[in-house]
Amino acid sequence: MAYIMVDIESDGPIPGDYSMISFGAVLVNEQLDKTFYGKLKPISDKFIPEALAVSGYTREETLAFEEPAQVITDFAQWIKDTCKDRPIFISDNNGFDWMFICWYFHHFTGANPFGFSSQNLGSLYKGIERDTFKTFKHLRQTAHTHNPVDDARGNAEALLTMKKEFGLKIKF
Fold it and tell me: Record's superkingdom (predicted)?
């Protein structure tokens, strides 16, 4: 299996009514050297200024980003080119990140290369620790900057640490 760590930034709480502004993906391997970064033009006139501010972009800047259909098509091709095995979607907050990625794939390409399921990094760590109050975030090496590639890389580093230090049985 090929684990792809994903992080997204949006201008609101749900896809369709609001827009995914950017996303990053990292193939989880020892090198963390295969990445994808997409910046997407908004699909809606609606946005929440506070949500958009997290991304570090202004509304005017986002209006100059690439067409979502092209970015999503490019991402699907990157997954195909990068993964020699079944791609597995994993993220820090898969309820949020998956919702946007899945919606955009189905809306713009008609299919999701990840299939119909995703993995949650935080839940995985809670299981390892056997404690629902634990967080993995101290295992990141790359700072959490809200640049989605940085954030996905930091989360991938945490997953690699779980494998090395806690004996997580996972194959990359």
Answer: Bacteria
The whole-angstrom separation of Cα 24 and Cα 21 is 11
CB 87 within 8 A of CB 2: yes
pLDDT tens digits for 16-48?
999 999 999 999 999 999 999 999 999 999 999
Instruction: Give the pLDDT confidence of 114-157 residue by residue, as tens digits.
Output: 999 999 999 999 999 999 999 999 999 999 999 999 999 999 99
Cα atoms found within 13 Å of the Cα of residue 78, Cβ hemisphere only: 16
Please indicate, yes or no, if residue 171 is contained in any of the structural domains: no
Report the CATH number that the domain containing residue 98 is assigned in CATH.
3.30.420.10
Number of domains in the chain: 1
CB atoms within 10 A of CB 130: 7
Q: How many residues does the chain have?
A: 172
Domain contains 7: yes
For 96-106, what is each residue's pLDDT tens digit? 999 999 999 99
Instruction: Residue 123: give the domain boundaries.
Output: 2-166
Whether pLDDT at 171 is above 90: no
- Taken in order 12, 17, 23, 29, is the CA torsion positive or negative? positive
First to last CA, the chain: 6
Do 146 and 161 meet the contact criterion of CB atoms below 8 Å apart?
no
